[in-house]
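Design request, tokens follow.
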């Protein structure tokens, strides 16, 4: 790991610095305590292990897909034909997607801002990135000249860090435009679970459009499972990318134990756990917003966000200055400049706070933030 003491090079390097702190509100992974019914799933891992040893992997995998996709309203996901590839994480799915895409095009349109490991992975395979502003995606039609200049359009929805969700109507229109231009439409839906506005059936819309599409789903942001997670790489039958070949270059498959655990978490979520999680995140968001109310020059630019992260504009201070001052209180957040991968200066005055943390951590961090921002 490179030395990140002085100047972290990317967001994940900022996140490394926070990993050992009890007040790590930096990365977007889920780190709150398990609920009692989630704890009972973990207590039953030996039984899940015994079951996973006995059953064919394909069956375990299909059960896991069904539980997860159905939980989040994705009823038209392609259950057959090996079109859901299970990866260790969404970044691994992303790498497989990027390597596959690079065999067919040299340019991609990418939402701006978004989490910087997405542009980093895409650049890593030699793609030229064309920024597509969130406003453009959510506004009217995209410029045909843009669509002629790229082989793929990549959208994170809900977006990280803004929480912005692509509506069903906008997805339908983007998919139609991509179909017209022969452009692959790729979605990263890692934060889908937090926002019911992202639970309409995306696969029905994508399939109906006839466009070539890819979706990266992620269980890792939703449940505090100590990095035991799955990234699913899902694609259209006509995608025309060597996804299965590149997948086979990298992995044979994921752990049936992790697949079984994900199935159980999805079943628990469907039985009330997801609504409980939504209430928990909303509670932490309220703690943060209310705790900073009235602080001069501080505002929350994403009032509608339901994602497990919250942006904070810190006025004339830079996000980096506030990040440094918070470290003196052992509190770790994330300065936002690198989410703005094309123009970092646009994120220079904001900070991202992770909300998938215990209520007590969010309250303590909020108090530290108030101290730092009012001194
Ligand atoms: C939108 C998005 N996609 C993918 C990832 C990568 O997730 P992982 O580190 O679990 O591979 C992140 C990480 O925060 C993310 O925010």
């Amino acid at each position: 790991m490179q030395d990140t003491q002085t100047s972290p090079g990317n967001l994940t390097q900022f996140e490394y610095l926070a990993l050992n702190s009890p007040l790590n509100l930096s990365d977007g992974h889920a780190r709150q305590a398990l609920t009692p019914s989630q704890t009972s799933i973990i207590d039953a891992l030996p039984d899940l292990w015994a079951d996973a040893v006995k059953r064919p992997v394909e069956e375990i995998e299909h059960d896991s897909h069904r539980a997860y996709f159905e939980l989040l309203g994705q009823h038209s996901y392609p259950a057959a034909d090996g079109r859901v590839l299970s990866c260790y994480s969404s970044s691994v799915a992303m790498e497989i997607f990027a390597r596959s895409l690079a065999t067919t095009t040299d340019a991609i349109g990418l939402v701006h801002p978004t989490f910087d490991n997405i542009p980093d992975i895409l650049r890593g395979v030699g793609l030229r990135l064309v920024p597509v502003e969130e406003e453009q995606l959510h506004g009217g039609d995209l410029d045909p000249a843009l669509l002629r200049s790229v082989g793929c359009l990549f959208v994170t929805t809900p977006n990280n860090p803004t929480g912005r969700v692509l509506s069903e109507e906008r997805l339908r229109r983007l998919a139609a435009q991509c179909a017209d231009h022969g452009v692959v439409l790729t979605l990263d839906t890692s934060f889908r679970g937090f926002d019911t506005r992202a639970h309409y059936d995306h696969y029905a819309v994508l399939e109906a459009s006839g466009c070539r599409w890819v979706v990266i789903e992620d269980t890792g942001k939703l449940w505090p499972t100590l990095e035991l997670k799955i990234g699913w790489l899902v694609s259209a039958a006509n995608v025309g990318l060597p996804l299965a070949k590149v997948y086979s270059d990298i992995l044979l498959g994921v752990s049936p134990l992790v697949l079984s655990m994900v199935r159980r978490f999805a079943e628990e979520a469907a039985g009330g756990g997801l609504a409980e999680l939504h209430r928990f995140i909303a509670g932490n968001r309220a703690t943060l917003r209310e705790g900073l109310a009235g602080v001069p020059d501080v505002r929350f630019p994403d009032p509608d966000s339901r994602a497990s992260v919250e942006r904070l504009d810190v006025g004339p201070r830079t996000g980096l200055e506030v990040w440094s001052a918070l470290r003196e209180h052992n509190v770790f957040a994330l300065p936002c400049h690198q989410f703005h991968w094309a123009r970092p200066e646009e994120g220079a005055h904001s900070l991202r706070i992770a909300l998938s943390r215990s209520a007590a951590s969010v309250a303590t961090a909020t108090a530290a933030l108030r101290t730092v921002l009012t001194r």
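Comment from the thread starter after seeing the answer: thanks! Residues 28, 89-91, 115, 117, 156, 160, 188, 190, 220 surround pyridoxal-5'-phosphate (CB under 6 Å).
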